[in-house]
């Protein structure tokens, strides 16, 4: 697909947990003022990703959809569900109907297990919307990103592009674009502070021309 304009629906995934999916989701939400959905949330003892993005963007409550699964333990979804004698079922997920931009954020990386046979990748395939892969900018990103791209393509998913999160690294960007045959949509440098203003500025700097 052309990367000239944003799709109306995007699935935000990452090469790992803690790679910056929620920051990228918050930037997109602040700029697009769309609808945010986290299908699976584990770790309810802490602030959820939906709560964090709500607080950081300052967007009204009606911009946030409830999770399909809310799990207490902060661990892989399959283990968090098992701890509550639950099984995550793909049939429980349906893509929300909305005329607004829809930002869907995954949990962990693409090969995080959901149950004994399905992975986050299978959920992404069921929803079948364009994918943004968030990756670190620093050492190790080439291997992790290329492996993730291979799996996404093997599943037939539509790649919108990659977002590099961290200090700018032109060598790694060139390597990802060349070896991964992928468009690097943006390089998100560390934000000095996260609030509605800095998120909107980050959107304007990195994504505005694509809307």
List the SSEs and their pairings.
Elements: E1 9-14, H1 21-32, E2 35-37, E3 40-42, H2 49-57, E4 69-71, H3 77-83, E5 102-109, H4 120-127, E6 131-136, H5 141-154, E7 159-165, H6 170-180, E8 184-188, H7 196-206
Parallel strand pairs: 1-5, 1-6, 2-5, 3-4, 6-7, 7-8
Task: Provide structural commentary.
It is a single chain. By secondary structure, the protein is α/β, with parallel strands linked by helices. The protein has a single domain, classed as P-loop containing nucleotide triphosphate hydrolases (Rossmann fold). The chain is 34% helix and 19% strand. It contains seven helices and eight strands; from the N terminus they run βαββαβαβαβαβαβα. The strands form two sheets. It has a six-stranded parallel β-sheet with strand order 2-5-1-6-7-8, with helices on both faces. A two-stranded parallel sheet has the order 3-4. Helix 1 packs across helix 7 (196-206). The two termini are 15 Å apart. 40% of the residues are buried.
List keywords for this structure.
211 residues; alpha/beta; Rossmann fold; six-stranded parallel sheet; two-stranded parallel ribbon; 34% helix
CATH architecture: 3-Layer(aba) Sandwich
Low-confidence stretches: none
Structural class: alpha/beta
Q: Return the string of H and E elements.
A: EHEEHEHEHEHEHEH
Q: Please write the CATH class name.
A: Alpha Beta
CATH topology: Rossmann fold
Strand content: 15-25%
On the 0 to 100 scale, the average pLDDT is 94
Helix content: 25-40%
**Radius of gyration in whole Å, from Cα?**
16 Å
Total beta strands: 8
Largest sheet: 6 strands, parallel
What is the CATH superfamily classification? Answer: P-loop containing nucleotide triphosphate hydrolases
The gross shape turns out to be: globular
> Strands of the biggest beta sheet: in what spatial order?
2-5-1-6-7-8
């Amino acid at each position: 697909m052309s990367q000239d304009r944003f799709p109306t629906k995007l699935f935000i995934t990452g090469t790992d947990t803690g790679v910056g999916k929620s920051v990228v989701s918050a930037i997109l939400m602040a700029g697009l003022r769309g609808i945010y959905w986290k299908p699976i949330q584990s770790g309810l003892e802490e602030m959820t990703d939906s709560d964090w993005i709500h607080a950081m963007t300052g967007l009204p409550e009606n911009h946030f959809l409830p999770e399909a699964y809310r799990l207490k333990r902060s661990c892989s979804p399959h283990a968090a569900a098992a701890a509550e004698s639950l099984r995550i079922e793909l049939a429980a997920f349906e893509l929300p109907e909305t005329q607004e931009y829809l930002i869907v954020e995954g949990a962990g990386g693409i090969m995080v297990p959901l149950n004994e046979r399905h992975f986050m990748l299978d959920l992404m395939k069921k929803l079948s919307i364009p994918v943004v892969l968030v990756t670190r900018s620093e050492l190790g990103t080439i291997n992790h990103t290329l492996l993730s791209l291979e799996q996404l393509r093997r599943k037939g998913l539509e790649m919108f592009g990659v977002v590099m999160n961290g200090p700018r690294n032109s060598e790694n960007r060139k390597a990802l674009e060349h070896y991964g045959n992928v468009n690097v949509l943006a390089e998100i440098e560390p934000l000095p502070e996260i609030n509605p203003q800095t998120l909107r500025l980050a959107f304007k700097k990195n994504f505005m021309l694509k809307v």
